[in-house]
Amino acid sequence: MNAVQKNLMRAGVASVGLGAVLLIGSILAREPAAGADSATLILQTGWTTALDGISSADLKAQYCAGAVSATRQARRAADSLFACASAGPVLSAEEFYPRSKDKWILLLLEEAIPRLKTADLDGISFFADPLKYPAAARPAAEHARKEITHYILTGVSALTRYTGKSADEHGVQILAQKVKPFFQSADYVHVSNEVSFMNGCVFAPGTRFCSKEPHFQAYREIRANVVELTGNHTRDFGDEPFLKTLAWFERNGMKTFGGGRNAAQASKPLYLTLKGGGSISLTGFNELCPLRECADASVPGANQYTRDRAKSTIDGIRKQNPRAFIIATVQFGEVNSYKPTENQRKISYDLAEMGADLVFGSQAHQVQQMEFYRGKILLHGLGNFFFDQTHTFGLRQGYFMNLYFYKGRLISMRPVFTWIDERFRPVPANAEQARQIKESIYSDDLLYR
Known about the structure:
Elements: H1 3-10, E1 41-45, E2 53-54, H2 56-64, E3 68-70, H3 72-82, H4 93-96, E4 104-108, E5 117-118, E6 120-121, H5 138-147, E7 148-157, H6 161-170, E8 188-193, H7 217-221, E9 226-228, H8 239-251, E10 255-257, E11 259-260, H9 263-266, E12 270-273, E13 279-286, E14 301-302, H10 307-320, E15 325-331, H11 342-354, E16 358-361, E17 370-373, E18 376-379, E19 384-386, H12 393-396, E20 397-406, E21 409-420, E22 426-428, H13 431-441, H14 444-447
Helix pairs in contact: 10-11
């Protein structure tokens, strides 16, 4: 046993090698009992930081040298874990956030915030594999695993045209083949379905779209269970395909929002339960309804955006459930640009000020900037997910966003970057493709304020 291991043992920590589980034990013995999760240390940093992780050895060296901030309770745990008394700054997550670029902070799990990027330790993400994560006590990791809700947001899905032809030629399973593993542990998977299925659907050039019912198996492959219906093309062939598609989602246990059999149903928020208490509420809108795709009193379709309707909906959610995490999605007017339009940004700010916690631009075929506004999250666009646009570089880029909720609160987000390949399906982006997407959507002036 080396000196570091002896120090860890004195602190109540059993070490079984780099990257293995550290049983932290009673690190916080000097603090009042804080629950089973009190010994889970999370490392966070700024979103534009080049590194997504660090080794335990490098973290120990930087922490002991005073180069890593920590919250008060995390400091007590880390001093014991690393067998040193760090002179680094003691800050809350909110105090650290504006200065987070290229810096690190250690927090307890429940202190983490999504405006900071959560780093891996020894190549292991706590959220992907809590039992192997190097800075969590096993009892704490097991407890947290049962109470963390994993929600995945995806971009534009239009099971039509060349994406549909690829499914016909290679089998529908080909569409999700390369990304399927990322979705298997999620509690909720959100897709924005842009096209309704139609009997006798024939894929044709142009922008009048239909889907084939067998191709909806692609949604089963990724375990989709939350379906947004704000899209522009859901009524390209009239009411019947829309209603049949809505019924298919209902038969298959998929909850829908942002569209419905009439305007009243389309405007109804969707509530989802979080593990360990709390809820998510979703409300969706179509800004312009350019193809007459929006619902009215007797016509099915999408929920048309008006400021008054959005405010009334969000106020109603807050009245019914003051602590709900509100996700507001909008099918904005489309533009192939990394920057949102001025009107898009204005509406997103407005929704955040009304009380939405996360605003998502579900229209974006091209990835758009990510922004934090008055403590709220604005994902202006995730790009294409299941769609065939490969004729420009920007339209092939995309990502889906993992959201992690704990104790009723969003504590972390993690993007997975994608690329539309020659079979018109999403595949994980390589390192250079991911770097280019980050360079396009991460901007210091939008992420550190």
